[in-house]
Every structure is written in structure tokens, then in C-alpha cells.
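W.,

You were right to be curious about this one. When I first looked at the sequence I had no strong expectations either way, so I just let the prediction run and decided to look at it fresh. Below is the sequence, 396 residues in total, followed by the output.
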Amino acid sequence: MTPAARVQTAIEILDAIAAAAREGGAPADAIFAEAMRARRYAGSKDRRAIRGHVYDAIRLVRSAPVSGRAAMLALAEVQSELAPLFDGSAYGPAPIAPGEARAETGLAAPALLDLFDPLVGESEHDAMLARAPLDLRANRINAARDDLAALFPEGEAISGAPDGWRLPAETAAVQHPAYAEGRFEVQDAASQYASAALDAAPGQAIVDLCAGGGGKTLAIASLTGNAADILACDTNRARLQQLAPRAERAGVTRIATRLLNPGQEGAMLADWQGRADRVFVDAPCSGSGTWRRSPELRWRLTPARLDRHLADQAKLLDIGADLVAPDGKLLYAVCSIIAREGRAQVDDFLNRNPGWTADTGYLPVGLGRTAGAGFLLTPAHDRCDGFFLARLTSPC
């Protein structure tokens, strides 16, 4: 492909990504992969170049653009080598017209910035869109961080995460035989901190209420040495089905799964009411803390979608609370930097559940900042995804 054809292809892919963002369609990675399958003539250099154009534009443009062309024109203003490629050639984009509109750039639209937790100032903005490193978590059942250091000497230890090892972005770690052997998982440092904050111990009964594909479930199993009984739940069958093969690879044998019907979660967990020592509520959210990895999430968030997340979070907190044994603990976590999903959500829970208390001091020293009754992790301050955590203790 010519350089101009690569730009035109990026424009077409950006059109599809912007439309999916507005309509709640497939994520950007899936759209890109499908576009490349439809263009099998594109070589590896073509794919890398096109992907670079697409994601550079997504990171630059603050909200879903009116067109992929408007996004690429904005990118051409900061990457001057792109402008001459709008040359009107056979497979390239049309020449740039005088005064042609460019997409607006920046971290996010002002209305979205206003929702950020007060701790998230402008000093965080660049880090929130910087490319994230690849973080690994050693599986304690059959490995240790020192093993990862030997396997990947180009990495570094993750501060505050005793099993964590950090590698440069795009490292092909999962292609290493040690991954197939279950010696490590790919997991951002923030998720490792959250899993450890649950304070799980061998012999406990634990519920992961929103387990998804089981990343944090497996981390909890690792931290307890495969010696705790864990129930992993979710309403998404496809995601929950990913857990069994992952657990087998990791050598984890004490995880049970339960598919829940939306709206019937409480009834379907009646046998667990009041008996869980620990409950993890990793609730669905805006994902605003993960923009480093999925920058198009900025294009997807609308007031209506946020309201749905807030309602789901409140419901899941109440369901999780009903499962906790007296003096047990519930960890609420969202990969969000929006105050209404974090500190405000927990304040509301404590107000409607007298007797529950918020714990303190469960993060390693120097990590996170106090945000109401919980803690906020942010990319610039903590070198990890944005996460809000609150650990709550039930009345005796």
C-alpha cells in the first residue's frame, strides 16, 4: 500500500469506530481487526502504519468526530508529514480544502472533564492518554516475581505489587511458553492492588460478584494459595466461560462459577446470603480510568450511559452487602476517575446502610490518595490505570 492509501484506510476505520462509539457498537480493536481481515493484501508494515494512524487520532481527538477524515485532518496538524498524503491519488484521500473542518482535540469534552474526581487535575491529563506498559502478575501457585525477572530481564518490579513485573508496551509476553504453563497473567498494577486490598485469606469463603473473564478471581486465588473457596459470578455467559480454562492453566482448583440472570441476582445467590467472608464488587463503569488502553471510551460515554452504570453500581453494592457475613468485608472497585462512580457512590451506600464502616490503610504506603471513604489511584500519581477502591466492613 502507498502511504496515502494507508491514510485513507485509517480514515475509513475511524469512520466505523466513531459510529460504533455513538451507537454502542463493537470496540475499536475489534473493528480494526475486522477491517484488516477485509484487506488481506495489506502487509505487516501497512497494518502497523494504519494502526498507528488510527490510534494516534483516537488519542488526539476528544470526542467522537463527525468523520474519520476530520480526525485525520486534526492528526495531520500535529504530524506534518501526513498533510502531503492528502493528494487525491487513486487510493489516497482527497486534497485538503481551505478551511476544512478538523475534529476538536484534547483529553475530553468539558462536560466530561467536570465529572472527574477533584483529585484529578490537569497534571494527570497527559498520563491518562499515554500508552500503558504491559504489567504481569506472577501466579504464586507455581511461580514468583523472581521467575518473571529471569524470563523478562528487560522489565522492572512494580512498586507495591509483590507479584508484579512491568514490561514495555507491546511486549509479546503471552507468546512465551511460561504463559501457557500458567506461571503468570497479564494484569495492570491497579487490578493487582485491588485484588490484594480484598484482604482474602486461606480458608475463607469469597464471592467475586462481577468476575467477568476472571482476572481478579485468579489473582485472589493466587494470593490465597489456592486455599480459599471462591464463587465467581457474572451475567455475561461468554465472559464467565473464559474463567474455567484460565483456572486450569493456572492450577486453580477451588473456583466455582455461577451465571446470574440480570434482575435475579439476589434470589440466585440466596444460599450465600450472610456467609461470605469477603465479597468483591468490581462493578461495571465508565472505564474512564482505562483510557490509556482504550482511548475510544472517551467517545462512548454519554449522560444516559453513565446513569445506567450508576444504577447498576448501587444495585450491585446492595446485593454484595447481603452476602457478607457479620464483620466480613466488601471491596468496591471501579476502573473510573469519575466522582459519582467512586466517592459519591460509596457515600450513598454508607448512608443507606447504617452500621457499615469504611476501612483505612489497606494500600501500600505512598499508593493512592484518599477520596471520601475510599482511595483513588491515577496514572500519573500511581503509574497504573485509574481506579477507585473502597473496603467496607459489615456490622457484627
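Here's what jumped out at me. The chain has three domains: 3-106, 134-186, 189-393. And, maybe more interesting for your project: The chain is about 40% helix and 15% strand.

Coffee later to discuss?

I.
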